[in-house]
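Appendix B, example 12.
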Amino acid sequence: MTKLDDKKKKFLQENFIDRYVKERKNNNWQNYRNRSGDRFKIQEKFIPHLGNKMIYIAIEDELNFNLNLQESRGIGINEESNIDNIVDSVLKEVKIVKPSEQLRINEVVDFIKNNKHLNISDFDFLEIGFRVPTIQNYFKNSLSCNFAMGVDINSFNVEVCKSLGYNVETYNLMCDMSIQEKFNRSFDLVSCYHVLEHVQNPFKALQNIYNGLKVGGILHVEVPIEPGLPRLEYGHLISFEPKELFKLLEGVGLSVKTGSNKTHEGGPWIERYIAVKEV
């Protein structure tokens, strides 16, 4: 595993951690998550295949407000954080497959083995929204996939994990060029867990993912089910009702093969689907 040199540590400390600690001390991150605050407002917008949905929209400076909202839920930062204890935490966490992650891994691996869609030891894998690249690490080292990478909107997550030798890039599903254009490749398997509730238009995000899949490629996707208004306190800009994710997957042209509400002990109400790009 790559070791961070002093120059990189100084860069991360000065460009990210010092600002994050200041935000926490000043309670600014909580202001971004406050439903009645001055950062976001609730607004009705039309989403294809779902109809009108209540969505949180940044009141101003949309790109930076959304980034700050999502940064507030990245690698854990407290008032005592420094680059050394953050790196130690990431190195420990990336080696531990949590029950929720193991459940997802088992589900998609069983599907691949049973349906012969992919050669389990020869596929290209993309993890969208990794925070810490545990699943990428598992597929690369335990299953020896051909190529594995992760993307996240949070540049700090990316900078830390890239410095430690992981194949990760900063990427915004909603604002950047398409997955195919950005990375000059398409993928056999894409995982996207608890990401779509953090974007204002999940239909557009799924269109991007669809175009980034190879024919025969698999999307493994999970969202929380939260009837009512979005939970801005968790960084959620849109909420999902039961079966809405299914409608979106079918709407972008994917063929849904499995669906599940199964989660880890004490986990939230979720829906998780395996969907295939057949044409």
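The chain has a mean pLDDT of 87. Residues 6-25 form the longest helix (20 residues).
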